[in-house]
Write a structure and sequence with these properties.
Blueprint (H helix, E strand, L loop, with lengths): L1 H15 L18 E3 L2 H15 L3 H5 L2 E8 L5 E3 L1 H12 L4 E14 L7 E13 L2 E15 L2 E11 L3
Length: about 160
């Protein structure tokens, strides 16, 4: 009976022990080490920023931007600070060409040796520019956002023309 009790105790202990979770990291990020999956929270920051941007609501956008952030546009312009970035967004929103877009993906990654503690979010957008109700431009944007403490501290935008 004692042997049965010991066997059942060992089985119960083994069954209750959580399996070891292996963190999957692949690729590399330079000196920052390998790349792992980030959090939904960082993606949510970018999705919320985009929702405000679609409404050209720069006040709401500012909630998701670090005051001292760096924002690099696809044409080479760099805005130092959220105020400079939002001024450019306001100017573009008042132009004759109207832009509409849809975010068709977003994911977050983190770097193994990132000592700052943020995450990178990559997002893709299909964009149409119209002038006098005629489509004059179709593009795809690929954008990277560095999110730290719920704010975008770095943003870069890359543009490709579409032929559809």
């Amino acid at each position: 009976m004692k042997k049965v009790f010991v066997c059942l105790s060992l089985i119960a202990f083994a069954a209750c022990t959580a399996p070891e979770v292996m963190e999957s990291r692949v690729g590399f990020g330079g000196e920052d080490g390998s790349v792992g999956i980030g959090s939904q929270a960082s993606v949510d920051v970018v999705v919320s920023l985009d929702a405000a941007w679609k409404n050209w609501d720069t006040e709401a956008m500012s909630e998701f931007l670090a005051a001292d952030g760096e924002f690099s546009f696809d044409d080479g312009r760099v805005a130092e600070g959220s105020d400079a970035f939002l001024a450019i967004v306001e100017k573009e929103g008042s132009m004759d060409t109207l832009y509409s877009w849809d975010m068709f993906y977003a994911f977050s990654v983190n770097l193994e040796n990132d000592t700052v503690g943020g995450e990178w979010v990559n997002a893709g957008f299909n964009v149409e520019g119209t002038y006098l109700e005629e489509v004059i431009e179709k593009t795809t944007f690929n954008e990277w956002y560095y999110v730290l403490d719920g704010k975008v501290t770095n943003w870069s935008s890359h543009k490709r023309k579409r032929n559809d």
